[in-house]
Amino acid sequence: MKNRFSIGEMAKLHNTTIKTLRYYDEIDLLKPVHTDSNNGYRYYSTEQFEQVNTINYLKELGLSLKEIKRHLDHRDINGFLHLLEEQQRLTEVKIKELEQINRRFQHRIKDIKLAQEIKELEVPFVKEIKERKIVRLMEKISSEPQLEVSLRQLENSSNMNSSIFIGGVGLTISIRNLLNNKFNEYNSIFILVEENDIQSPLITTLSEGKYACIYYNGNHNNSPKHYESLLNCIKDNGFQIIGDSIERTIIDHYISERKEDYLTEIQIPIKC
Q1: What residues does 170 pair with on adjacent strands?
Q2: What is the separation of C-alpha 213 from the centre of its chain, rounded to a whole number of angstroms?
Q3: What is the mean predicted confidence (pLDDT) over 33-48?
């Protein structure tokens, strides 16, 4: 059996490309055993098969070609172990990141499915809500541009990226403004936090307790009349407002182009 393979044969045998093997040659990662001086054809031998396997194996582990070349040029068991241990560490970090992303998917899917099940809109009701962890920026917000700028400020100051809080953004109206029927000015913007390892001086909580709530079809621009409805319900039932309101759009135009799908919830903490 012959022990000389053209670059095309080598590429086919190892499920790679001629371009890749040429690049390996250029960076001295895998040199052909012979190059024809007349036509420049490259030839490889079976002795190099294991080297190709090693390169592919280390690439699958996530090592760069530079790291692979360094190992192949200076092979020793301790160096190889260090490479594997470092790659294992990086893999564990990536697994943790993917687990966080998966939890966000789960929470968002649950959020939207629950929203789709809501039948009664514009009807006030009371529910018990557990404590929620948030990062909160105290900022006067009275327009959509201010909202977007404040959200970016909150994101940056908390070292968070937008993938973390898609669907988890909310606004609050101060108890003072609520009592004075002023519903067009928010006093803070917040992000619901599902991870325990986010470190920020802006981390706080939304208190556990009873909340007077209402769902409605629309976004923040449609909220004033629903605040009025909630406040009337609170007054009629002899409840006491004990904190800032919470307002969160669950489904908006980024999720559905159908306005009838839009859904926002308002929650006002109360004492019965």
Answers
A1: 190
A2: 28
A3: 90
